[in-house]
Amino acid sequence: MGALIHVVMFAAALLAFIAWSLAALAALGVASLAPKGEKLSAYFDLGMWHFASLEARFGAGVTPHLVRYRRAFFAFFAVIGAILALSFSFLFLKNA
């Protein structure tokens, strides 16, 4: 069991990195729809989860990017939570 945990942790870390990368790509997609001079405020609104103001300013074309960002964000933190839960539970397992 001890050797297999490294493989599971690596796979989980890889999934977390992929989710983080998808969130970053979605953020770049939102900023690409912003007019010149509003990219920084678009990043700020995205980071503060002001999705309604982003949709009002940039139109309905930004909605798929926001949905992708939200899902990737939740997936990232779900995987990180699973890694933490697995590592804490691994401390209480007895070696055979």
Mean pLDDT: 92
Q: Report the major sheet.
A: none
Structure annotation, total helices: 4
Q: What is the helix/strand order? A: HHHH
Helix content: over 70%
Q: How many individual β-strands?
A: 0
Please report the distance between the alpha carbons of the first and last residues: 9 Å
Helical/strand content category: mainly alpha
Shape: elongated
The number of domains: 1
What Rg, in angstroms, do the CA atoms define? 18 Å
Strand content: under 5%
Descriptive notes:
α1 (4-32) runs antiparallel to α4 (63-90). This protein starts with a helix and ends in a 6-residue tail after the last helix. The chain is mostly helical. The chain is 77% helix and 0% strand.
What is the secondary structure topology, with strand pairs?
Blueprint: H1 4-32, H2 39-47, H3 51-58, H4 63-90
Quick structural summary:
With 96 residues, this protein is an all-alpha fold.
